[in-house]
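COURSE: Structural Biology Practicum
ASSIGNMENT: Worksheet 4, Part C
STUDENT ID: 0417
INSTRUCTIONS: Below are two proteins. For each, the amino acid sequence is given first, followed by its structure token string. Answer the questions at the end about the second protein only.

PROTEIN I
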Amino acid sequence: MKRWLLLAAGLAAALFAGALMSACGGDDDDDGGGGLTPVTFMLNWTPNTYHSGVYIALERGWYREAGLDVKIIEPAAGGTAQVLAAGKADFGVMAQEEIIPARAEGVPVVALAALIQHNDSSLYFLKSEGITRPRDLEGKTYGGFGGVLERQLISELVKCDGGDPSKVKFVEVGNVDYLAGMESNRFDFVWVFEFWDVLRAREVEKKDVGSLKFIDYTHCIPDWYTPLIVTSEQLIKEKPDVVRKFMEATVRGYEVAMQDPQAAADAIMKGAPESDRRLLEVSAEYLSTRYVDPGRPWGLQDREVWVTFTEYLRRAGLIDKEIDVDAAFTNDFLPKR
């Protein structure tokens, strides 16, 4: 969720080249065999439950039925945006806080669908810290990536709840075992996804942990999309039929994930057998009712969310260039339901 930090550096030529090397070789225009069009889908993280719709569609052969030979590939070192823009992957997963700065720097990525309608981020801590609300973060130490967005959001949460943000300490810890870090008193709280890190600790490892969900404080901070399925402007322009077929099969996958969480966990286990089955099962159950609000089609993005969060990043000083919000996302490739 905080990979937007890597984007600024990733726009440099050296990292751009490294990202391409990390993605995969070969010519994406080559026929995948049997008349199928080869398609690459780049993960943004370890395989997890918010990728389940893609794994379900792959397992059930829906991409092949659509004439697509879909291959899931590992994340590139410099992030997804540059790889998509260079045509070295066709689809990927990014957060809105990555897409907006990328577009501000001229990287032509486009969001096609929101994987989860609302932000599932949380601030996560041991219950022994006595944290029950944002102002309780006074005197605590946050362990993160040293990003401006992290400091901005946490400070606003604390201030909104009547606390003093200057009393929160920030330390840069990077990508570490957060639970171990909190248990060894290196830091007191971190920013994670509720559906993964919090459930792992609480339901799988049986730790006494708590969390403050961002979605419970939208009177203080904005709701935004994290993550989304993305592609490039070039693919939309040159191969709109491929984009449409991919999204139609993918939507079918997420509709199954919402109706049958066990099928979602099973599909990921089949595609990524190194995964923790228990975590996948509890996480798939949790997400099944959170992918989208009742009565709403999966994947649909609201322009208001894009406008509001773009303005938030601008006010926070995280972007200093105007972007065309309407060019940053589209719902046009979601099937009409």
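PROTEIN II
(use this one for the questions)
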Amino acid sequence: MALPAEHVRIQHEQTKTKQWRIKYMKNNAFRYACLASALSLGVALFSIVVFISQTGFLVFKDVSWKEFFFSATWEPFEEKYGAAVFIAGTLYLTFLTLIMCTPIALAIAIFVAEMAPNWLKNVMRPMLDLLVGIPSIVYGFLGLTILIPFIRETTGTLVGDGFLAAALVLTMMVLPTVTRISDDAICAVPQHLREAGYALGSTKLQVITRIVLPAARPGILTAIILGMTRAIGETMAVVMVIGNTAQFGWDLLTPTSVLTSNIVMQITNVQFDSTWNYALYMMAFLLLFISLVLIIIIRQLRPKGE
């Protein structure tokens, strides 16, 4: 009678060993798959940066860096490649979007997180999530067909294209993203901090401004920078409303251009091994560099240990 029992025990141990080996192989396979995915992503990003930078820096064989960065004359047919208009325009448009979007997004986020009743929160949050997913060309089309005619009639300008229209369109695009992330950051503030403020006799406004917002500041700054990153890299919506003219438009109503709009309007018309094409690639590298800097800033803003 002992032999069958010993045989069963051996079979059970063999089965457990086999199951353990299968589990070990699956775990290793999953780990190596994750490692391969991370490496492939890193290689892809590194390849993009190297290709764009190497191609872009070729422009300085024929164009001095002073001319490219500080000259406002962009006449490729005359071999003049001054990109100052587009660089300054990109920064100016981003700044306009920032000052338009941030107060509105922060006010909506505070209302949703701290003041709105639950039924209204359940309505507004899905609506904001839906607005985040709307394609940018839809915003651009609305700006082209509704916003620009309105600006033209209101201001009396002949065209209506310019920084004002582009900044308003980008504000509509970026607003849901900044609002939702700010909302999450405010909701992440521990409830006991609010209760401590109320226990000390603070009003609702004082709790929000002196306790909640300072505690949620890293998350709010992250939301703003993410929104600006999207605004800097946006193309189609900006192309449809900015005018695409290589001139400064500081008055907000003059047709102008930025890095993204100039690239998309001209990249299909040039030869790859031309100075014109190298200049466009250098603009793309500047956009990539700005985005990477903003991402690094976001990483630095995150609390330690997250």
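ANSWER KEY EXCERPT:
Q1: The mean pLDDT is 87.
Q2: Strands lie at 74-75, 80-81.
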